[in-house]
Amino acid sequence: MIAQGTLVTTFKEYPYISFEELDALLARVEGTVYCVDPTSNRQTPPLAVEALKDQLAHRHIIEQIQHGTFESHLQPIIFLDSTETFGYEALLRSSANISPYDLFRTANRFGLHSKLDQRARAEAIKATYEAVAPHQKTFINFLPSTIYNPDYCLQHTFDLIDRYQLSPDRFIFEVVETEKVHDVDHLQHVFSTYKKRGMQVALDDVGAGFSTIDMLKRLEPDYVKIDRSYVSFCDEDAEKRDFLKKVRALTHSMGITLLAEGVERIEEADVCRELGFDLAQGYFFGKPAPAKEHVIKTA
Asked: Which letter does DSSP use for residue 200 in this model?
């Protein structure tokens, strides 16, 4: 039995009491705050008051993740040989002007990363419907850690694509922070689930430590995006050019489309073009912009 006057909250993903109520309660509570699992009514280990105060300090970001509005900004991805637009990467932006870094950092800290990741995918699909031409692709980021069961967790994404009556082959789902992926079997399952539904997949921010033949064979990505750290000033760095040349040869032999990220100078674009890169993305070709600023798709 929980003592009278002790604060009780589910603390699953979000307290069922408002922040205003929590403020008032914390002003009177000392010592320990307990959590209760509403499905079993069992008391879980104690949670320090400081942890709730920490959540209060981030209330505006938490409320934005839960109930705020978002939109996708689209950054162009171009064919290097023709400079025509291949497609766009959809990047989540908050109506409250909270930086993406703060959004995802806070979401991860308070167990809201799955919800935020799902909302980001939903906004990207909506932006595709509203502003991306049918012959162009949309790259959508995802965090593998938020998809514990691909067959279940991705159903919302697949339902949205069906609801907007969009062809699945218009979407390329790219894993965020490829270098930090440790459970390759899980990522392989996620990739397989996307592919079974007619979508393509990409590895993001690939660097020297990840581009092994064995890893690429296991995951079979359709696209590989090279980390901007290897593209930046590659025209002035022989070691970077050597790495880019090797990864181009490897991906070409495996039928993988190669994309250079973070291109900000014409010299970098020229090097990647000369080395045979297929696609490029970066401020040199265009910054992320609201979907409404792009030409509305034609039938």
From this structure: E
Shortest CA distance to 223 belongs to which of 122, 77, 90, 119?
77
For helices 266-274 and 238-253, the axis angle rounded to 10 degrees is 40
Q: Are 158 and 108 in contact (CB under 8 A)?
A: no
122: exposed, middle or buried (Cβ count in 10 Å: 0-12, 13-18, 19+): middle
Calpha distance 254→268 (Å, rounded): 24
Task: State the Cα–Cα distance between residues 195 and 203, nearest whole angstrom.
Answer: 14
Per-residue model confidence (pLDDT) at position 42? 52
pLDDT digit string, tens, across residues 35-61: 544 455 554 444 445 666 777 778 889
Under the banding of pLDDT at 50, 70 and 90, the label for residue 8 is very low
Nearest CA-CA partner of 297 in 141, 157, 121, 88: 88
Task: DSSP letter for 180, please.
Answer: G
Cα 142 to Cα 113: distance, rounded to the nearest angstrom: 10
Tokens (6 digits) for 165: 């009556």
Q: Which helix (H) or strand (E) holds 246?
A: helix 238-253
- Please check whether residue 73 is in contact with residue 91, taking contact to mean a CB–CB distance below 8 angstroms: yes
Residue 176, Ramachandran bin (φ over 0: left; ψ between -120 and 50: alpha; else beta): beta
Strand runs labelled E in 47-188: 47-48, 70-79, 85-94, 137-142, 171-175
